[in-house]
Design a protein that fits this description.
The protein has 2 helices and 10 strands, in the order E-E-E-E-E-H-E-E-E-E-E-H. By secondary structure, the protein is mainly β.
Length: 102
């Protein structure tokens, strides 16, 4: 199922974003934070697992229990420091367990 845009409730508003604009999603207990290409962050009341299952057209790379990255945005992985370097230059930490599968 292809979704042209994802509906995110932000306070009293509903924001529609294209799935390809998502760089990564970070879990915060039962909430999720979307980090977008334009540098914006959107906080939602759904879990990380919910969003990974819902946004099927993106190939997600789960690098930590609380972090899923859109694999189109990964530049390279530095296994010695457990860092994932994104195409925008940002560095994220992965866990040893999840990086084993890469």
């Amino acid at each position: 199922m292809t979704v042209p845009s994802i509906k995110l409730k932000v306070g009293k508003f509903t924001k529609f974003i294209p799935p390809k604009s998502i760089v990564y999603i970070k879990a915060d207990n039962n909430y999720s934070m979307f980090f977008l290409e334009d540098g914006k962050t959107i906080y939602t009341s759904k879990t990380l697992k919910y969003w990974i299952d819902k946004i099927e057209e993106i190939s997600w790379l789960r690098v930590h229990r609380s972090l899923a990255i859109n694999d189109m945005n990964i530049d390279y992985v530095d296994r010695s420091s457990k860092s994932i370097i994104l195409s925008n230059g940002e560095s994220l930490m992965g866990s040893r367990r999840f990086l084993k599968g890469i």
